[in-house]
TrEMBL record:
Main location: nucleus
Protein name as catalogued: FHA domain-containing protein
Keywords, ordered alphabetically: Cell cycle, Chromosome, DNA damage, DNA repair, Nucleus
Coiled coil start-end: none
Amino acid sequence: MVWSLFPVDPHSGEEKYYIYRKGTYKVGRKGCDIVISKDKGVSRVHAEIIVDEMISMSRLPGGSNILSRVRIKDGSKYGTFINKNHASNEKVHELPSKETTLKDGDVVCFGTGNAAYRFSFVPFVFFSDNRGSYMIKILMNLCTHTIGACTTIELSDECTHVLTDQLAPVSEPLIDAIVAKKPIMLMSWLELLGEKCIGSEIPSWSSNVPTVAVEGVSVQLVDSITRSKCLVGYSFILDPRQMYLFEDRLPALLEVAGAKTASVEEFCSNSQVVDCGGRSRAVCVTTKASAHKFDDITELSSYSRVDEMDLLCAILSGHLDLSVLTQPTGQYTHFSCEWYSLVLNQWVLLKCTS
């Protein structure tokens, strides 16, 4: 984990700080690692925060009840105070050796008390589905020991970042990470993080956004906010007879891109489910192996088509190229939704008995 010092009053004008590795960090009014300018009672070199070890969150099962391996030592005129769990202030300058241990959640006040900071941990839990890579193992091991990060072999709610290689093929874990709106970045971001000691922000990963491979096509990923807007206003009609690459993940993937989804049966029973105010907004999702399966249903004969791979590229990149939307050929015999329902029921029955 990374340790942080955040001003209790976010409007105080004081900076927030992140501590990325073990060491001694000076706190004071000028020329220090942590600069406090709003309280005149803060000495030029007021205190020292000493990080003896960066502790991994996996080693803190009891949370704030476990020692953080971080000490604070006072060297000021007006003192340093620790408010632990809303109890009375502990006067660091009156303690033996003028130091004490900091724990997650402690509020630290320097000088007259106008400069109050909350000391807390910021968890870093890394997941990568390319963890078999030797370089990934090296970098993850480095970060675990340097900043106290954790690694996980499964994507979970606790996971904070997903790491991948440049031009890695799109995989199910990567799709799950996109659906979960996890930040996805290149391994090089880990190197950048490992070089930090202390700073006022977590390094941006905007320059470490990966490009992934979708059936030989290179697609640069975007952040979840950009992605959430790219398919707003569209509804996509899915056919359970189609063998989509990511199967049951496709509806969730479309939803995080701002789209609505419906099955052919839902559309047949209520076209407003997917109409969104205009027929041009409803699109049938096809596959290369069965591009014309929608053409035999009368109610869908006039709707645009899009191949699932083109749609996947649009979701990953945050941009739908309208040229990938195609019009139906009109050369196939059209049948009613009742006919489709009969065929679908037979298809489901065969699937269940096979």
